[in-house]
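**Protein fold record**
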Amino acid sequence: MDKPTLYIANKNYSSWSFRPWMALTGVGIDFEEVLIPFDDAAGNPNIKAVSPTGRVPLLKHGALKIWESLPIIEYAAELYPDAGLLPGDRAERALARSVSMEMLSSFRALRSACPMNIRRPKAKIALPDGVDADISRIETIWRDLLQQSGGPFLFGAFSGADAMFAPVVNRFDIYDLVSRNDTLAYMETMKAHPAWRKWEEATRAEPWIVPEDEV
């Protein structure tokens, strides 16, 4: 089987890149990584040369190109059915897809006010309307799933659903947004995962600064 190639952007800021990278790395899927920084306000032409949308992440497998984080994870789950990217139980797979899609399509107030920034020192900011509601809904998702599965991850073992929420873990952490013990425990579990630590280490070596994401 040909090894897929995952195109990503700056690890410190690119939440969309973080999700599929964390998913594939977290379950041990072997892939080539190509990082194209978004270091140009108009968009890096090297990204546009690779991706039909002009954005990353993008997974290339042979002649096939797949964009957007969730379809990448879904494709990898079909390509590597024994890797554990999706729960084994049909009902749990449906639930994992539901919460992953909600993460993809919702929580705009949180994402706008609190950009992902792995290197940012922890500090609170003034929060606009809507952020508290987003936080509450995400905590409810996590709490319900962890109670059902018994943890330590949302569906017991690490899966693509955890990877979809990885950027939120960073946001909750660096903007000091949460205090519930169960939320904090799940965040620590995620941050202790070897894939998370590998990504975080790589951010420390990146030279790029994106001012609009330095809240």
